[in-house]
Design goal:
72% helix; Serine Threonine Protein Phosphatase 5, Tetratricopeptide repeat; mainly alpha; two-stranded antiparallel sheet; 2% strand; 465 residues; single chain
């Protein structure tokens, strides 16, 4: 095998230069969530099965599926790759990528991320390393590192590069998760101007509109670009999920249920982890808004039962658990919590998060659904300031904060409910659910004037529909 350069100047060990050029296309496809990503990788492996980075990418993509079965396959690929590299004379960068895959498959996300960022010091045009580190920062709940990782790289790329918009969108998301909403919106909108089919950038702006309470604008933004972003893989359902959040606050529950049935769970059988995260959190939210969701939990529980033993991402496992406890499958839920307890004792990045917050949160979810509202309040409340660690976005993690509030109200602790809702309306001033809850908490304490004022705020937000 020889060394060939791709259009970004990155060196690849391959049989032909065409493989290196095609790998650049693969990276662009992955960054854009394109449905053809797997096909492009297959083309490379068919034509050049010994290409180290093609093998490594196969391991990365297996690991990105976020389930134990796929992670076991990624580990096999990693071990084979380690044995393969000395035979083909791999470059330093390729050996670093192999080391990152090995670290990741052994549960050390921090080491994998550090290796990718080390690669980027020497090779800032390595879009694969950049997007993977963005993923692991995301599932560590570290918005500042997402932001800073892009800030270091963005000036080194030409604005004429066809993938430059993807970087703007990633930077926008890091800014949004760091609560720099104005700058996030600026970069996100610029990214979408460059490429309206860039679902991650559309999503970055959708987050800003959610966090700043601009529901009508959010609906228009997501719907107006649907013809473009709907061409991507299952991530498209997450954008429908964002639209549902806007409709929830406006009290448009029929619209939310219609979107849930037609979009959110339309491909649930494909077993993509983000679909269950979208669905579980949305159904639980609907119920906290007082909506009867019928037997929709049963379908999610059927999927969740196949992931009881997963030890990949605690954020995802918690959403499987939500489906199990909501569907009333006590045995499967207890087994999953026992597995999370065992997971928390391992020497892995996500295991440490389980030990600090994930296990307690899991037990709190079980208590909330079992009617032990005081127990749920105590458990979830004890880790509320650690919840960022489970990963996901602030908007996604908000469901757990809502569950804490809901359990506090159900426990009858009116003083605690008043304090928590007072915090919430201070942060989410445009949330009808929050003002409604605050009104009820005040009324329970006989603070009628304040209750009426809070109810009026909730009604005013709803009246904007």
């Amino acid at each position: 095998m020889k060394q060939f350069s791709d259009p970004n100047g990155l060196a690849f060990t391959a049989s032909t230069g065409e493989s290196a050029a095609l790998f650049a296309k693969l990276t662009s496809s992955y960054m854009g969530f394109r449905r053809t990503t797997g096909e492009v990788l297959g083309q490379i492996l068919d034509a050049d099965p010994d290409m180290p980075m093609a093998r490594c990418a196969k391991g990365y993509f297996a690991k990105l599926m976020g389930s134990s079965n796929h992670s076991a396959h990624a580990l096999e690929i990693s071990r084979d790759l380690d044995a393969h590299l000395p035979k083909v004379g791999a470059t330093d960068r390729e050996r670093q990528h192999a080391a990152a895959l090995s670290a990741w498959t052994h549960g050390d996300m921090e080491k994998a991320t550090a290796i990718w960022e080390e690669i980027l010091l020497d090779e800032p045009m390595d879009g694969l390393a950049l997007r993977l580190s963005h993923f692991t920062h995301f599932y560590s709940g570290d918005g500042r590192r997402m932001r800073d990782a892009l800030a270091r790289i963005l000036p080194l790329w030409s604005e004429d590069h066809p993938d430059y918009g993807f970087l703007l969108g990633m930077y926008a998301f890091g800014l949004e998760e760091s609560r720099e909403y104005a700058r996030a919106e600026e970069y996100g909108r610029k990214a979408v101007e460059l490429n309206p089919a860039d679902a991650w950038s559309v999503h970055s702006v959708a987050h800003v509109l959610e966090m700043t309470g601009r529901q009508e604008e959010g609906i228009d933004w997501v719907k107006g670009l649907e013809a473009d972003w709907s061409t991507v893989n299952n991530f498209r359902f997450h954008l429908h999920w964002h639209r549902c959040l806007y409709h929830l606050e406006r009290g448009e529950f029929d619209e939310v249920l219609a979107l849930y049935d037609a979009q959110i769970v339309s491909d649930i059988s494909s077993d993509f982890y983000l679909d269950i995260c979208n669905a579980s959190s949305l159904l639980w939210r609907l119920e906290m808004f007082g909506v009867d969701v019928g037997d929709r939990w049963s379908e999610l529980a059927s999927v969740a039962r196949t992931h009881v033993a997963d030890t990949d991402l605690i954020f995802v496992s918690l959403h499987y658990l939500m489906a199990l406890v909501a569907a009333g499958d006590k045995d499967a839920a207890d087994e999953m919590i026992s597995n999370i307890r065992n997971w928390s004792q391992l020497n892995e990045t996500q295991a440490g998060i389980c030990a600090r917050v994930g296990l307690t949160l899991a037990e709190g979810l079980r208590d909330a659904r079992a009617g032990d509202h005081a127990g749920a309040m105590a458990k979830i409340g004890s880790v509320r300031y650690l919840m960022d660690e489970i990963g996901g976005s602030a908007a996604q993690r908000d469901v757990f904060h809502m569950i804490l509030l809901d359990a506090t109200v159900a426990s009858g602790n009116a003083l605690k409910a008043r304090s928590l809702f007072a915090e919430r309306v201070g942060e989410k001033v445009h949330s009808s659910w929050s003002w409604h809850g605050y009104s009820n908490a005040l009324a329970a304490l006989g603070e009628d004037a304040g209750a009426r004022a809070a109810a009026a705020r909730a009604a005013a937000i709803r009246s904007l529909t």
